[in-house]
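Bit of a strange request maybe. I'm writing a small parser for structure token strings and I need a real example to test against, not something I typed by hand. Could someone generate the tokens for this chain?
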Amino acid sequence: MPKFICSFFPESLSDIEKADLSVFSAVDMIEWRADAMPADEILRAASLFFEKFKNFPVLFTLRTVTEGGNFDQPDLVYHYILQRILTEYTPTFVDVEALSKPEVLDKLQAFMPKLWLSYHNFHQMPDDLVSMMADLAEKKPAAVKIAVEAQHHPEVWQLLLTAEIFRESYTTPLIAIALGPLGRISRLIERSPWTFVSLDGEAPRYGQFTLSETKQMLRVLNDEKE
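Reply from user aminoacidic:
Good idea to test on real output. This should exercise your parser:
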């Protein structure tokens, strides 16, 4: 069964200070979506965040506008923040937009065992998914994450089939997500190492299920007892 990741989108230092850690107790890792904050506050918030969440595995993500997030600063600033997070704090993993930030990725080669190499496309399903996944896996990252917008059901199955073909040849962990309601089945794949969930009681994002829904459906799909 995949492990569960919940994304946390603090918009200020106050949001981090007020965060109730108990609501995250049932997830396996927290994704800090730092792009919800102003760029000049991220590093000031880092000390507070990593101290408060020191008992949780953390995936640090700075999603850019290009790939569906809010961060709109130059590559130099993007690299500077990731470099500081990797060298001064203790993230379990750091997400790097591998295809839209190739020069940044080159500068972070020494950290590859901590990097998730990601690609997000909210507009279409690329034709070269197999080679894309393979090229990223060859860099020996901690994981590869592909999130694409499927326009039709066949594209969802195309993504899942491509992911299975990849897993037959590579040991690199792969998270392959078809975004939105059309692709929700992609969040319930047994061979995926991680799946993103929303906290119970929160409005799901991007076609996610809640944590309880995800656990229940995975148990049913895999014929497991509660």
